[in-house]
Each structure stands twice: as C-alpha cells, then as structure tokens.
C-alpha cells in the first residue's frame, strides 16, 4: 500500500498516457499492457483524492495471505485479484483460474493481452471490489485475505486495491495489466503543460508486478543477480536493471512472483545499470523529472524473454486523463472500436496555460530600483520561494532570468540576499505583470497568488556591489604626492567652497601647505571641520580627474540619496557644501551634528574607495559561498568517482542553499557535438541518484553547460557527478566524465 503525505495542495495537470511498445535499444513492437478502466468513459483507472495498495503472494500449499493496506477514513472503490501463470499452453484452465479467495470462490478471466514468451506465461484477473470493500470497511491498517487455492501452474496472486479518501491529495492512478512485451515496451505520459516536480506535494511512483522471474543465487528475494531480470528506464535514464525475482513468494516454480507495494519502499536501486544491490519493484519517479518536463517516458525490457511483467501501476499527484490509444498507427490500441483521429482520446485543443512565475535578477547599475533597458542579468543567483509550508530555490539562467511552474496557491518570492559589498536595490518599483495577483512588499519580496493557469511575470530583483572609484583620502592630499597636484586652480576651487576651521571660521587657502596643515588638523569636535576636510578631498579628487562627478556612491541618510541610499558625487558634495554654509559649527548637542556626520561618513567612505557603485558585476566578488570541483575525462564507471585524473574536462560549481542542491556544470574539451546525460548521486554507493537526461549538448569543441537544482535535506554530502554520452562512443577517452570528491553543504 502506498499512501503519501504530500501537503495541502495538488498539482493539476492534464496527462495523456500513451502506451507504445519499444524495446530498449530496439525497434518498436506492438503494445501489450493495457490500461484498466472501470468504464470506457473514465479518464483513468482512478482520478480523485485517494491512493492504492498492492501486494502479492506466492505459496507452496494453501492458507497464505495477501494483504491490503488502506488508511482510516477510506472507501474501497476498486479491487482486483490477479493470477500469474506459467507453462500453460493456450492459457490456464478454468480449474487453475478458480481461486478460493478468503472463503469465496473467485473465477479469474484470462487477459487476452497476455505475453506468453518462452515460458507460456499468462495473466488472469477478477474484480473483487465488493468482497474487499466489505472486509476492509473504512480502513485503518492492514487487512489479510487468505488464499486457499494453489494450482500447480500458478506462480502466485496479486491484489490491487484502489480507495478514495478525502484527507489525501488529488491523484491519477493508471493500472496497466496483461503482459509487457518482453522485447521492450514503452509507456509515455504526455503532459499538456510543463511540470514542476519541486512543487509542494508533487509525487510520481511506479509499482511493477512480475511473475516467473528467478534471479539465481539470491539469498534475500530482493537481491539482484545476473539471471532473469527486467530493465526499466525513465526519461532515457536507467531506473533499474534487476526488476523481478521472488520477493513475495519462494525460489521455485509456483512461487516466483513479486509486486512493489505493501512492506516495500520507494528507495530506488543504488546501481541502476548492473545486477547488484537490491530491488523491491516500488520506485520513485520524481528524481527522473525536471522542471519544465512535458513527458514521462518509461521503457521496460526482459532480456531473457521468460518473465511475466504482468502489472504496472503509476500514480501521479495530478488531475489527468489517460489513454493508451496511439493516434497515428492505424490500430485500435485501447479497444474502444475507434482508431486514431476517430477516437475522442486523440482530440487536441489548445494546451492549458502553465501556472508559473518568472522574473529576472539584474545588475542595477544606476541604482534606481528597477530593471532598465541594457542592464545585465546576474546568472546563478538563487531565487527562493515558498508556500508557507515548503521552501524551494531556483537558480537564474545565464541571462539572469528564472521561471518556475507551480501548483495553484499562495507563494512568497525572495532573492537570496548577499553579504557586503553587495546591496539589494530592487525592486522598489513594481514591474510585475500577468494574470496572477502580485504584491511587491516593502522588503522587496513578492506575494504571489496563483490560480490554475495563472502567470506572474516581472518578479524582478536588483543588486549592485560597491568598491573603488578613484578616490584619494585626506591623508593623500596632505602628503607630498597630493601636495604636488595642488595648483592655483585647486586653491581657487577650495576657496569657493564653504569650508571651515575648527572654530567655524571660513577657510580660504592660498597655498598648498595651508591645505596640508588644515587637513592634518581636522577633528570631529566641530563636525563641520571634519566634514569640510572630507568635502575638500573629494572636490580635489573630482577636479583632478580621479573621480567622476556623476559616479554613484552609497550615502545613506543623506537628502541627495535615493530610496536605496545612493547619490551621485556631485549631488553629495553640493549637499555638504550647502549644509556647511547653513551650520559652520556642529558641536555636541547641536541637532544637526548627526546629519553632518552622515554626510562626512559618506564622503569619507568614497574617499577611501569603499562605496562606489561598480559599473558591472565583473569587478564584484562572488555573492555566495560556492564550491567548485574539477570534472575528469576517462572517469570510472563505479560509484567512487573518477579513477583517472589525467585530463580535466570541465568543472561543477555548487552554491550553498536551503533545502536544495544548486549547481552549474561546465564542460571544456569533452566529446564534440555530443549529448551528455547528467547523474548526481551520493558516494560511495551511488545512492539517491538524480538524473538529467540529455542535459548538455556540446559544440564542435566539446564545450557546453547546464544549471539545475534538486531537493535535498540539510547536511553535508559527498556528491558524485557523472556525465555519460548516449550512446556511449567507441572512443574510450570520452566514455565518462566524473568528479573525484566533493563536499556540498545544504542548509
């Protein structure tokens, strides 16, 4: 039984499920598994608030139990009993299909889309909804059902129970049964709008049922060995290479059955490409899905051609329609008598608008708190968003923009605030647009209320950094280097200002040495004296071409500063000069003394090259803690990182984040004109792997890049980054690219 606490919201997406046979690495064949629908008009096996339970039993004798796990407050709406048979030429007999199921005689019906293969394998099914619903009642735990029949050619039975429950999220459940084509089958979810698997409550799980599968040498029935196994790929990336075995039975004919469900968990196999580790046939599909995906493609293959892959159950937290009709093959795939365009399942209308939010992170070069034409974007900057329950982040792209697809709900968007010398300047001007309800808050965050299909655009965030701008200090102008620059024009300039001495009298110098003595004697007893000294130094800086008068500096609490606290040098000097004319003395107790101190501090910081707005981000330090690691060509295919560090082929950079791993991969001199699939897992066992199929397309020089993210609990991880071309080229030097050791912090 699989019941998930997915939060308060569900992701509403229209899905078309198309079942197309296609072998892994082979040509497509005819479809065999078929979608089970209670009524031809139903959009799927089940759609609504609820879940499912799945279990199997293979026994040597009678009296064993198959279980249903149904949470309290549920109503059983569908229940099916399956039999998986072997060595039955033409299908199992009526006697073999007659099962004593918990004291009631149930007659299973052979499914016409069984796949006999080399083992004369067949699947049969019966609807046992009434019986199961009566015994389970309102649920509240595990219910046992005794199986009192065990025909010789029955490997085992499986029980699938679907229930509704108002306390669970909206789901769509697709049950596909019969027999998967052993040469290869493919099932495709075509999403009508891009998905966001990082959205609150998003879930996608897969249960497989397999009969007549025996992985010789396995001690534990979950163990993987290189014998009878099935291969599963999701979105082009390996999920498992050892599905099957006798998990729910015993290791001999008549007990070879497994179904992912009761007692299993969704931890995916650590090694998805080899027959090692364990597999319980219950899988989490979310790691194989990325923001913006429009498809979920599942491929299966049974290389030994003697397993009965008779059941697949897919549950997605989405409102969906599901069909197995292939709309361009001239075949009635779903058995409703209608073919291709004549089938209403193939009707297409305008796709619904994705529920999304987007914006930009930009360098606010003019410090005006809004995105202006020509201002550059800031790449790889985390934008945080949450719905009050769950937080997530997205990195801005190379152009500084970001976009996320979300479930309907109320969200807060905020930029990750960087430390000094970075400043957050915007947005102080609301540039948002779209159909969503958006509020720009005083703290420069956005409150966004999204209904299904809404969009929110223009969620912009401005930043700049400060640094040097050519300033020289009062110490410089009082030493020999500064004195050498002071001429008659400089003295005339200073005499034209409202400069004062310590006693508040006017200072109108006629020689450079007078300037030196005056600067060296400046104190803050009379704040107007110290303000005069800082103003004089800046005036000399501008007059001698060292500082531009229109340069912006951070000048908080001055009247010439804008809302973000920035003012031009010319305006700041004019403000200081006017204040000196008004108040030539500012001693302790004077109401204007603190104001003069603010002006003095702003000029002092500028003279010391601490507060000038930089023209662009190229001279700014990295805004966040980052960790970069080399990627090596000719890496190992094991789970312990690259074993050959001779040739560097790029790097991966991780940004410290909250609840997510944010990363950027750059390739330099990898395989030219190649498509690389990216996998990130935990060393040393490749656990919890996350796949990004065809993430990087290299150019003719083997260069390319990709930025992404995935959810991760707080902690420090040694993450293994692997990149593999598909198909793997014959040149072994480009077989794989991998890291060695990493240390990635998630808060």
- What's the end-to-end separation, in Å? 33 Å
Question: What's the pLDDT, averaged over the residues?
Answer: 85
Give the number of DSSP strands. Answer: 43
As a whole number of angstroms, the C-alpha radius of gyration is 35 Å
| Largest β sheet strand count, sense and barrel closure | 11 strands, antiparallel
Estimate the global geometry from the Cα principal axes. Answer: elongated
What fraction strand?
Answer: 25-35%
Taken together, the total number of domains comes to 4
Query: What is the structural class?
Result: mainly beta
**In percent, how helical is the residue content?**
10-25%
Count the helices. How many? 8
Mind explaining what this structure looks like?
This protein is mainly beta. The chain has eight helices and 43 strands. The two termini are 33 Å apart. The model is unreliable at 1-31 and 728-735 (pLDDT under 50).
Topology:
Blueprint: E1 15-20, E2 34-35, E3 46-57, E4 64-70, E5 75-85, E6 98-101, E7 104-107, E8 109-110, E9 122-127, H1 129-136, E10 141-147, E11 154-164, E12 170-177, E13 185-191, E14 204-211, E15 230-234, E16 237-243, E17 257-259, E18 282-284, E19 295-301, E20 308-316, E21 356-363, E22 382-386, E23 391-395, E24 401-405, E25 409-415, E26 422-426, E27 437-440, E28 446-450, E29 455-456, E30 461-467, H2 474-478, H3 480-483, H4 488-495, H5 512-520, H6 527-543, E31 552-554, E32 566-568, H7 569-582, H8 593-607, E33 612-613, E34 626-633, E35 648-655, E36 660-667, E37 675-682, E38 687-697, E39 704-711, E40 715-717, E41 719-725, E42 736-738, E43 744-746
Parallel strand pairs: 21-29, 21-30
Antiparallel strand pairs: 1-13, 2-12, 3-11, 3-12, 4-10, 5-9, 5-11, 6-7, 8-9, 12-20, 13-19, 14-17, 14-18, 14-20, 15-16, 15-19, 21-24, 22-23, 22-25, 25-28, 26-30, 27-28, 30-33, 31-32, 34-35, 34-42, 35-36, 36-39, 37-38, 37-41, 40-43, 41-42
